[in-house]
TrEMBL record:
Sec23/Sec24 helical domain segment(s): 771-870
Protein name stated in the entry: Uncharacterized protein
Domain of life: Eukaryota
InterPro entries from the UniProt entry: ADF-H/Gelsolin-like_dom_sf, Beta-sandwich_Sec23_24, Gelsolin-like_dom, Gelsolin-like_dom_sf, Sec23/24_helical_dom, Sec23/24_helical_dom_sf, Sec23/24_trunk_dom, SEC23_SEC24_subfamily
Similarity field: Belongs to the SEC23/SEC24 family. SEC24 subfamily.
Low complexity: bias regions: 78-125, 133-152, 209-245
Naturally occurring in which organism (per UniProt): Allomyces macrogynus (strain ATCC 38327)
Keywords: Protein transport, Transport
Domain Sec23/Sec24 beta-sandwich: 675-756
Pfam families reported for this sequence: Gelsolin, Sec23_BS, Sec23_helical, Sec23_trunk, zf-Sec23_Sec24
Amino acid sequence: MHPAAARPPIPGQPPYPGAVPAQNAAPTPPPGAQMPYRPPFPGGPGPQGTPPPGYGAPRAQMYPQGAPSGSPAPMMRPPAYGQQQAPQPRPGMMPQQGQPGQPMPYQQQQQQQQQYRPPMQQPGQPGFPPQGYPQQQQYQQQQQAPQQYAPNGVPPQPQGQQPAPASPPSATRRRMYPDQMARAYAGTGSPGQPPAPAPPGPGGPPQQPQGQAGMMMPPAAPGMIPQQPSMGGLGGSSNSLAAPGTPQTPSGSGSRSRIDPDQIPSPVAVQDNDQAQYATEPYRTCSKTTPPLASTEFRVIDEGNVSARFLRMTTYNVPCTEDLLAQSMIPLGCIVQPLAELKGGEAPIELVEPGPNGPMRCRRCRAYMNAFMQFSDGGRKFMCNFCFIQNDVPAEYFCNLDMNGRRVDIMARPELRCGVVEYAAGKEFIAKDPKPVAVVLAIDVSWNAVQSGLPAQMARIIRDWLYAENAQARFPKGAQVAILTYDRAVHFYSFHPALEQFQMLVVPDVDDMFVPLSTGFLVDPYESQPVIEQFLDTLPTLFQENRMAENAVGAVAESINDRGGRLMLFHTALPNFGPGQLKNREDPKLYGTDKEKQLFAPQDTFYKTLGEKAVGAGVCIDQYLFAFGYQDVASFGQLSAITGGECKLYPQFHLERDGARLHTDVLRSLTRQFGYNAMVRVRASSGLRVHDHFGNFLDKGTGDLELAGIDADKAFAVALKHDDKLDEKAESAIQVALLYTTAEGHRRIRVLTTSLTNTTLLGSVFRFAELDTTVNFLAKSAMTTVLSASLNTVRTQLTETCVKVLASYRKNCAASTSPGQLILPETFKLFPLFTLCLHKHKALKAGDVASDVRVAAMRELKSLPVPLSIPLLYPRLVALHTPEPTAVRVSYERLDPAGCYLVENGQGMHLWLGRNVPAEFVHGVFGVNSIDQVDPRLHVLPPRDDDVNQRVQKVLQGVFARYHRHLAFHVVRQGIDQAELEFVSHMVEDKNHEAMSYVDFLVYVHRQIHSEIRGTNK
């Protein structure tokens, strides 16, 4: 493992070495070129109605040639606490001319509130097994004493009444263009009047009455929450909300929920409680409890079961029968992150030298020796825990047993006591002589790239990677580096250490591609340091007069296939010259229709075939795409998807705004643990079988997954099915074997093993289920479905899965409760929220999203590990104006106008300043006297000798350290900057992205559960 990781930039210093100022003017583009987007200032407001560039932006934003012009529009400011508003029209009704149209205050929308009491943790509840818990002990379903949620205003439907549809809003609404969005946000037209809602799409649930579909507007009044009634409720391990009295329906636009947002399940509270549990105590892998949440910082003690860092199950109690699994509706599977990084204080993975006969394995099923195989007959036999047959122990592996039946050499053999172990691979696992990794960096130098400043930025990144302080210590021993550039020709460079200066050889015939160098192309970067540094000094100006708009990236990918390693492509336009050139097939008219899925499928097989060849050669391809226009990620991006590489999309790349992010993204990729020429085999014990895999890899249908490369931040999903009935008194086992070559050139086999309890009780399946893993599993499965089904269908399927899982629990584990109560299992009480978050993710959300952005997001979700997927779906929101930074639920209503908040999702962060934030706080953080003087163009927070600034800096540094890289940083001032639109889009508990709020979605799910139980849901 490489111990070093990318270093986050130091606030106040240039976010990357040798940063250059943005160019003030660009030459006239050559015919056919795409002009790089240059806003008035990086990250600031663009022309009127044009939100800052970003993921999921409207077409005029993503491809700004057609963006309207004009001055920035003012922003509608939500009312302050207690501020009186003009008389309100009914929600959803268009005011008459001259009538005020402000949204109705939240208090006026509430007529009754419900209460939720957090469950009391008692022995026997989830996460708290009984004392003396044996391996096969099962909890009784009758031990669950449910607490109830019943949204008032959501009564059981009368017999014969048509149930509500089973999916959130479909993507059938007309889009809101940037100028319309800005006018709506600014309140033009009637003063403060919200647009009239579009009718619900076919098959969608009822919509909220106010606001236009797709508009991401701050809610009317932060902090306006209904008064809380007195606490009541029940204790127990499930959660519910009781409905006091008869539900009432307000007049006007239909029923609205009266759930108190403070009383529904809170992810912040759940995560804080779990973190407190493991703040001082480590997690022991054989403790027979569910592991810590993916958001929790914890330390692992490996007792024989695999650590949750490497493998997570959807449930840790396996149903004994297929019928019981089907009854639970929980998918059975796991998420595997085989090269995950360990945390400080954890024991390193031990290396086993197996000897001439290779690792000890079962003679029948070929499972590797692990801590759950039992020895007998004085140590001369062992029973396989996968196929349950007796194996003879070879003489060279024999050892006596102690009085407890354990081998006396257990401490000398890691495979007998560790859930994760690594073997040195023998000759039978080596097809060709392994070598240290070779890294080839291919840099686009066509007109688009030069005008964006990409060559100069890449020179800084390469210099920092190879020659910064301590760079040589973290560089893999024996690894080699090559650099090439390309436009319509491909330029190879010789960095032979005997040369006084580098040599460039140009191959103009890209249809007959070859590498024209026998030596000097791949070199040791430290033996050739003077020559490489001379090239890096020259690269920023070497192509500054280049007027070629064409690029032959397909020929570049074809040429690098003779040695295992990685090819990193830095590319700026649609492949348009030579092999693999593509046509622009982007068709916005397909957005939101059933035919949109056509844009997600490749337009030909060139890059698929090329990716398969790269896998055979052990070449992993990473793609860094700087989008100034359509690039057809669905076709071109297959190179990284098939080989297991990285695909990073930078929409409307701007050097000052995105340079630091690119810098640390590349350094993180080059310094984390990496393996190439890899193969994965997953085994399940008797009675179970591997049914499917989801992720970015090549699957030839042989049962083995082939990956040209895999790194510490990549994961894949494994779906399991029953072959036979399981023995309740036995345990089931899962084993993952990864065969790969390390960056230093060593062939290794990493083995992960877990043993799971079998159960005949449905309550135990739920009690030991793991929501974070289930959500990640469902997301990966959904990303496979989008190629054959519409986005609306996929969203509907996710909602139906959520409803069926919760209905199964309600029907089978809490049947004695009132039918009008919503019963949520403790482990899955946040399932509706995370289902809604999936609906709002840019891979699936309704509305117009550029196909490149969608496909890049889909491919990212398919390889994202569980710990990185949770903040991406439910961002972290932290209050910075409090004495201690405090986590806050992600809703605009919870923001204090006198406060300062930071929201981050692992990809970007926004620092939000309320309009009433104290001048002392602003001066302490920024050194100015009011928020009007704060520069919204800041992309690094300058350090100051002030306690408040240092407190904020500490939080920012903690975020950078958590992800090992820089996140795009934006300052947002409430009611001033149009960047607040992007900030509001992260408020997933609110109504946005043409989807409901958390409260309304919970009400909707309750109705669907009731219909499912009554058998009327369709």
